[in-house]
Amino acid sequence: MIEKENFWKSKTLKQMTNDEWESLCDGCGKCCLHKLEDIDTGEISVSNVSCMYLDLKTCGCMDYKHRHKNVKDCIKLTPETIDKINWLPNTCSYKLVLNNDDLPDWHHLVSGDKNTIHERGMSVKNFSINEKDIRDVNEYILDWFNNNGSLF
């Protein structure tokens, strides 16, 4: 149970309870898209190909509890890792709170509705394709992706 309304404004990421931390995720699914890193330049390329465990209708993980066991390179977001992960979108709620920015009006903690993010087109719903349905992720690289983390 979330202890306090607008907890993200009064607490740091490290001060949040596990329930608060989990509820902060906006459910966009952008972190579940495949990314490729150029070994020479370190440049990150993002595709619209999602992890096989991403539910493309809800943008939630279909096996969240076991995601790190199922997918060895699934990144665990923690208060200590958020600022080190350079491919998270600028809209990521964890990044916003880390930088003392407000959550957007489409975030479910603000709007009161988990579907607002999808209605506003801020998730990968109706945009991504499951990795099981493709042969080569390189064919799905988004050339308009901004390395500053702006997916949309």
State the domain count: 1
Kindly report the average pLDDT value.
Answer: 90
Percentage of residues assigned to helices: 10-25%
Strands side by side in the biggest sheet: 1-2-3
Kindly provide the radius of gyration, computed on alpha-carbon positions and rounded to a whole number of angstroms: 15 Å
**What's the order of the H and E elements?**
HHEEHHHHE
- Content-based structural category: alpha+beta
Number of strands: 3
Terminus-to-terminus distance: 31 Å
Unreliable parts: none
Describe this structure in words.
- The structure is a single chain.
- The longest helix has 7 residues, at 18-24.
- The protein has a three-stranded mixed beta sheet, with no helix packed on it.
- A hairpin with a 6-residue loop joins strand 1 and strand 2 (44-50).
- The chain contains six helices and three strands; from the N terminus they run ααββααααβ.
- The mean pLDDT is 90.
- 19% of the residues lie in helices and 9% in strands.
- It has one domain (9-140).
- It is α+β, with helices and mostly antiparallel strands and 152 residues long.
- It is globular.
- It starts with 6 loop residues before the first helix and ends in a 22-residue tail after the last strand.
Features:
globular; alpha+beta; 6 helices; 152 residues; three-stranded mixed β-sheet; 9% strand
